[in-house]
UniProtKB/TrEMBL annotation:
Belongs to the ABC transporter superfamily. PANTHER family: TEICHOIC ACIDS EXPORT ATP-BINDING PROTEIN TAGH. This is ATP-binding protein. Residues 28-248 form the ABC transporter domain. Pfam families: ABC_tran. Keywords: ATP-binding, Nucleotide-binding, Transport. It comes from the Archaea. The keyword GTP-binding does not apply. One of its GO terms (molecular function) is ABC-type transporter activity. Gene3D superfamilies: P-loop containing nucleotide triphosphate hydrolases (3.40.50.300). One of its GO terms (cellular component) is membrane. The keyword Transport applies.
C-alpha cells in the first residue's frame, strides 16, 4: 500500500446464502443438510473480484443499480462484514455512516447512543462531552435527547447518526445514501458538511443513486454491477457509462 493511499482493495469477493422461497420436503431438507445445504440455499455473489484504491484526501463515489454490491462493499470497508477472499488495507480511522441501525442501539436514548458511538470510535467521555451540544444542534434533536432510539422516526435516527459520525474526527468517512434520507433542508445541510470535510483534506467514500451529487462531489468514481467493477476513473466518464448501460437495459 502506497503512503498516498487511504484505502487499497485487492480481489475482494463476498457470497451470501439465500434461502429458497419454496418449501422443501423433509427428505430434501435432510439430504440438503448432508450435502451442505444444497436444497435449502442458493449462493448470491455480492462482490466478485473487486479491486480499487482511494487516495488520501480524495472524495470517491460508488454507483450502480440496486443489488450491485455497493452497500456490501462499504460494510466490508467498515469492518461490519468480512470478505470471503481478497484483502482490504486502510490507512487511518474510519467513521462509517451506513444504513440505519449500524453502530446504534434502539433501546438506548439519543444521549446514550452518542456516548456509545463516540467511545467505539476511540473518543474519551470528555471529548464526546465537548462535542455533545454540537451533535444535538446539528441533528436538531435537543428535545429528544432522552428518548430511546426505537421511538425515533427514520429521519430523526439518520440525523442523529450522521451528526454523531462527523464529530468523531475520522480520517475516512463512509457515506451510504445519506442524501436520500431525511427532508430537503437536512439533505442540503449534509451536503454542506460533506463539502466542509472535503476542504479539510479528509477522505470520503460516497455511495449514492444521486448521480448529480456524485458528479459534484467526487473526483473519481467506480461503477458496480452484479458485484463486479464495470468501470472506474474520472467521474463524468463513469457516469456516462452507467447511463448508457441503464438505457440499453431499459
Amino acid at each position: 500500500m502506497n503512503s498516498d493511499e487511504a484505502i487499497a482493495v485487492e480481489h475482494l469477493s463476498k457470497e451470501f446464502r439465500i434461502p429458497h422461497d419454496r418449501k422443501v420436503t423433509m427428505y430434501e431438507h435432510i439430504v440438503g443438510i448432508l450435502k451442505g445445504g444444497k436444497y435449502s440455499y442458493e449462493l448470491f455473489q455480492a462482490l466478485d473480484d473487486v479491486s480499487f484504491t482511494v487516495r488520501r484526501g480524495e472524495t470517491f463515489g460508488v454507483i450502480g443499480p440496486n443489488g450491485s454490491g455497493k452497500s456490501t462493499l462499504l460494510k466490508i470497508l467498515a469492518g461490519v462484514l468480512y470478505p470471503d477472499s481478497g484483502r482490504v488495507q486502510v490507512n487511518g480511522k474510519i467513521a462509517p455512516f451506513l444504513e440505519l441501525g449500524v453502530g446504534f442501539q434502539p433501546d438506548l436514548t439519543a444521549k446514550e447512543n452518542i456516548f456509545l458511538y463516540g467511545s467505539i470510535m476511540g473518543l474519551t467521555r470528555k471529548e464526546i462531552g465537548k462535542r455533545y451540544d454540537e451533535i444535538l444542534d446539528f441533528a436538531e434533536l435537543r428535545r429528544f435527547e432522552n428518548m430511546k432510539l426505537k421511538n425515533f422516526s427514520s429521519g430523526m435516527a439518520v440525523r442523529l447518526a450522521f451528526a454523531t459520525a462527523i464529530q468523531t474526527d475520522p480520517d475516512i468517512l463512509l457515506v451510504d445514501e445519506v442524501l436520500a434520507v431525511g427532508d430537503e433542508a437536512f439533505q442540503r445541510k449534509c451536503s454542506e458538511k460533506i463539502e466542509e470535510i472535503r476542504r479539510q483534506g479528509k477522505t470520503i467514500i460516497i455511495v449514492s443513486h444521486a448521480l448529480g451529487t456524485v458528479q459534484e462531489l467526487c473526483e473519481r468514481c467506480m461503477l458496480l454491477k452484479n458485484g463486479r467493477v464495470l468501470s472506474s476513473g474520472e467521474t463524468g466518464k463513469v457516469v456516462e457509462e452507467y447511463l448508457r448501460i441503464s438505457a440499453a437495459g431499459s
